[in-house]
Amino acid sequence: MNRKMLTLAALAAMSTVASAQSSVTLFGVVDAAVRSVKNGSAGSQTQLASGDNMTSRWGLRGVEDLGGGLRASFHLESQFAVDTGTADPAKFFGRRSTVSLSGGFGEVRLGRDYTPTFMNGLGDEFGIVGIGSRGIFLYGAGSNLGSVASTVLRADNAISYLLPAMGGVYGQIQVAPSEGIVGNRYTGGGLGYKNSAMDVGVAYGVTDVGTPSDFKHYNVKFNYMFGFATLHTLYDVKTWGGRKTQDISIGASVPVATGTIRVGYTRANRSGGPVGSGYADGDDSSRLAIGYVHDLSKRTALYTTYSRISNDGAARSSVLGTPPAGMLGGENSSGFEVGLRHTF
């Protein structure tokens, strides 16, 4: 009897050690909003939208302690639409699918992942998503300047090296071969510094788009927490051939007793493209947005946003990210929404 009890105790102890050394976590976000948008001649439309505060998604991530400070990990993440129940038809784990080895040397990460230029653009007061986000200009329709670059947000086949923790300094180098697909070959990197109040960073990336001129992207970020509010700023530049867009963004998030007030402005200056293309001199746009997130708990929140985009020349930027077919150049876009977000 004692021998059996000792054996069971030993097995239990081994199980406890194993669970402490290896873990797998299911996580996700479910986010939906009712919104009304107006896009010039395309008219007004009421929609049930998905992911306007945080992108609706689910995923699995895990880590195994290999001993000696060495760890193996993975991250699989898939996007879905709450309003229709559909998943991304093109890439099931399209948001991220990586496996990593990390230790005192840093982290080596392989798979589909965010580019350093996108990562440095994070820190938007609206979380990069929704009708109020600067992401409408930075990552929406036309953000690759009409080229075939597919690397504005993520890169397939990415091989990345991330610096270890070094007193607030962080950085990344990434190379992604094309594997025969034009617009997928990316080389880039970023470097930054973050402490309890400040986050500053720079990033640069180049994508081979199969023409004499590469698609180039660089940005500079400066965010600062004053205590009563956090300042969010970004200067983002993209070029391809003669085409160029310069986005200057400034915003603030102000904590209040029950949530956060958010306000942001972006000016997109475009040049170098042919007249009528939306990338010519004077085809500029500006975004002004204000919103509020009301925290019901640590995982659940209500939110509301109002946003307006003013377009000049042939510009057709929309609060939807992708302009509807009936919207004409130089017409304005606006939207109002109320939503509910839950994380798990």
UniProtKB/TrEMBL annotation:
Query: What is its membrane topology?
Result: Multi-pass membrane protein
InterPro entries (UniProt xref):
Gram-neg_bact_OMP, Gram_neg_porin_domain, Porin_dom_sf
Alphabetically sorted, this entry's keywords are: Cell outer membrane, Ion transport, Membrane, Porin, Signal, Transmembrane, Transmembrane beta strand, Transport
Subcellular location, record wording: Cell outer membrane
The signal peptide here is 1-20
Q: Could you tell me which Gene3D superfamilies the record lists for this protein? A: Porin (2.40.160.10)
Pfam families with a match to the protein in the record: Porin_4 (PF13609)
- Superkingdom field: Bacteria
Porin domain spans which residues?
7-313
Describe its partners and assembly state.
Homotrimer.
Name used for this protein in its record: Porin
